User: What shape does this take?
Amino acid sequence: MSSSTYDPPHVRPGTAALTDHAVTEASAVSWAAIIAGAVVACAASLILVAVGVGLGFSSISPWHDEGVSATTLGLMTVVWLIVVQWVASALGGYVAGRLRTRWISVHRDEVFFRDTAHGLLAWALGTIVTVSLLTSAITGAVGTAGQVAGAVGQGAAQAAASAVGPVSQYDMDTLFRGSQPGAANPNGESNEQAAHEVMTIVGNALTTGQLPAGDRDYLAQLVAARTGVSADDARTRVDQTFAKAREAKQRAQQAADETRKAGAKLALFTALSMLIGAFVAAAGAAYGGHLRDDPY
Assistant: This one.
């Protein structure tokens, strides 16, 4: 046979046309394999999330100086999110790539691309289903917690009305504590109106950042009249109460800021772990496809 000519193998008339038509009409997407991979990824995610919740509860403790700190717990959560994405995505992608029907007469590079696309689709579908399931579970838990909190809140509303404010109930009792234990109010009057005035004045002082001298003297006179202590002791009590209220406000602001930063970091690390999961799913599908096409 001359090197310039090529003698194709003998085939029956119409066979080549049928083969080319079948290859052309065959879909490049195998949804059965994708759904199977997504189901595996979803189940693995739920199992690993449950394990992570168990590990998290076992690592914390209500007792002082026991269990991990909040920083360590947050770091563990981020690491576990990445582990969940790695493992679940790898399993789902591998199953999607391995179960897909083998393509005939398709270039190796195209096969590699289709395998990675199948892994990516399996990851995306599994992620959507997992998030939907977790959202439903969290919504149900929040609804139950809201009902319990509402029942408790109705019973505690009156107490909270007098306790919630710039000054805690304990500091308020300390402010109007009598000079002698068990001694009655010198004027025989209730401290409710006085406590309301203290709340209003201290709340305004916290808003402006300082306690005006006139308000300080008025509170000192009010405390002295209600408790029978000297004017100097009354001013000391007022200063201490305002300092504690300012410290409590600063702690609340610091806690809110830390919560904001933690939420931002968690969102960013969650997005990063999901991107890693997408890559691992594509790589797992490519590896599964390689084992499918080249088993030896």
The helical segments are 15-25, 31-59, 70-99, 108-163, 169-175, 192-208, 213-227, 231-293. The radius of gyration is 35 Å.
